[in-house]
Amino acid sequence: MRRRDLGLALLTTPMLLRAARAEAPVVRISKQYGLGYMSMMVMEKLGLIEQHADRVGIPGLKIEWSVLGGPGPQIDALLAGQADFIGPGGTTLITLWDKTAGTPQEVRALSALQCMPFVMVTKTERIKTIADLTEKDRIALPGVKITGHALTLEMAAAQKWGFDQYARLDPLTVTLAHPDAMAAVAGGMSEITCHLASSPFYYYELAMPGMHQVMKSYDVTGGKHTNGVLLATRKFHDANPKICAAVLGAQKEANAFIKAEPRKTAEIYLAMTADKQVDADKFAEWVHDPDVDYTTVPLKVMAFAEFMHKVGRVKRIAPRWQDMFFEESHDVAGS
Questions:
Q1: In this predicted model, which residue has the larger pLDDT, 305 or 75?
Q2: Distance, CA of 120 to CA of 127 (rounded, Å)
Q3: For residues 135 and 150, what is the distance between their CA atoms, to the nearest angstrom?
Q4: Is residue 2 assigned to a domain?
């Protein structure tokens, strides 16, 4: 070999090695427990990501699952590089995209996690619709102003009384974790008269004597909407295309399993959460609820984004929903 060729070989070999370098050996995923995270729980229990990773040429991939309480700690872990995927609500995606778009840490969704409504439940007989709420009532939800629950309530107020009245019910809202909110509204001894709940809490509540539904988010949005999304940073996504393909493939397989095997899905959930409030048969009915759709296709994300931009919660709005999702999801019929 000529000296010049040898020099080029020595120069390019490290570059080629870097280009062929393996993807991350460990993937860190943060979830919570609830029906909204059912596909993630099935992926964990059945080892689906590991199986799909093996198929795309990453044998022995290790998955570290963690449980972080609420979107705040999840977001912090993602942006600090301590988590590779998180599964918060769709409004969190809109907020993070606004803050990070165009940076190496730009946050996008690999996929939707599911369509699932928010349901307002009460034990107070006089409250039939949101028009019956008074200044004496309090509505518990997981976070005021910014959560999908709070924004849905504002959208409902805007539809009922005109857009300039979108914040009319905000003074009635109280931040409270779902288990605490359920205990408060069911007990009837606190100031909390309504709970704008996620699944499975509205199922628990509506099964209690004297409880009834006040509103459902699907009625506000005109149909099913995405509840949760699977988020990653652009930096991680671009460095690990095979891992992202494996995760998406595993999620699709988990969704198919949930739809085909609601009883086995219920057993997985109850075993992982040690939930003693319901039996597997009843839980299987909830898994099979027509209101719930475990799908990777995002729906009505732009409706929330447009509302958030209009009321000043985000400074920028993506031109299309695809701009907030990675390329893997661009060919689906989302909105």
A1: 305
A2: 11
A3: 17
A4: no
